Prior knowledge:
Elements lengths: L13 E2 L1 H18 L5 E5 L5 E5 L1 E5 L3 E7 L13 E9 L5 E5 L2 E2 L1 E2 L15 H14 L8 E7 L3 H5 L9 E2 L1 E2 L7 E2 L4 H17 L4 E5 L2 H10 L8 E3 L4 H11 L3 E6 L1 H9 L13 H10 L4 H9 L3 H10 L3 H19 L5 E7 L5 E6 L6
Parallel strand pairs: 7-10, 8-12, 14-15, 14-16, 16-17
Antiparallel strand pairs: 1-13, 2-3, 4-5, 5-6, 6-10, 9-11, 17-18
Helix pairs in contact: 1-2, 4-6, 7-11, 8-9, 10-11
Amino acid sequence: MAMAERPAKGSRKGYTTGACSAAAARAAVLGLLTGQVPERVDCLLPNGQTVTFNVLDGWADDRQAGAVVEKDAGDDPDCTHGAHLTAEVSWLEAPGQVELLGGVGVGLITRPGLGLAVGGPAINPVPRRNIEDNIRRVATDALQHRGVQVTISVPGGEAMAKKTLNYRLGIVGGISILGTTGIVHPYSTAAFRASVVQGVEVAANQGQHSVVLTTGGRTEKFVMRELPQLDESCFVQMGDFLTPALDAANRCGIARIIIGGMVGKLTKMAQGETITHAGRAPVDVELVADIARHIGAPPEVCAAIAAQETARYASECMAELGLEHDFHVELANRVIATLERRYPGRFSIRVLVCDFDGNKLAEAGGIHDHG
Length: 371
């Protein structure tokens, strides 16, 4: 039976945990004011758009009210898709005050460096303002005489957080309430890039002197095994975003850079590619052939490498010739040379190379890194 073609990646936008929390809070406050939580509620997003959300499980009495908005992440694969962003509100004897708390399933901040209070909820500044703004829009008159306390919770949020890197940032017990615009864009590279930069900034704010940049999960596990003395906050999965990560390190004053990678991405780095995504530029097989020549591979092997399209082929040829270690050391040295030309005198760079199973092949550059 012929396999069905996989559908193309979608383009349906979704809404952030911040936007859903603001909508739930607004609906709950309307319930507090009127005794009836609406089934649909308008919510002003941080980007200025007004969007109507469906409200689940609304309840209200004269002192408290609650509402739930289910997160729809659109076509963005996200562990918080389907999460029930829950707002519970009550009156405060503090005119004009809106107090925001985190409940079950919302992470707790345990380390400085995120721009949020240690011991407070992981509700980022933009969602925080957006939640308050939506409350003030519907409760303007009531707030002249009293205040509102709102608690945001996410049932199941602690389990969702295990699929994120929150623990690495010192956020425990749940997810973060995030979103700068309110909209989730499908397959958002901007969001990933921002998380890479934030990871480097957190390492700097923790007082780390080294940052370990890896291209993915396998390479990160490999480097963590190699460098057990380094704190978790040093490790940042940069994916394809080498330049944003290095620019952030440069800006934050981190002097020691350790890169963990496999042959393909490292070849892109040695080429000087600022973004190492497989689709952005082909591997420069001439560069790979030149490395092979440099370590003494026979001319016919170098010619075969130059005729292929992958760096992995070169790696396999070198293994057959007993030159695998030398090849990867030279590749690592080329990466260091390229990056030192781009950031002259700025970093001490060390490169660790592993194979596709996460086994160490070689390393080059600075040897003594203790955090």
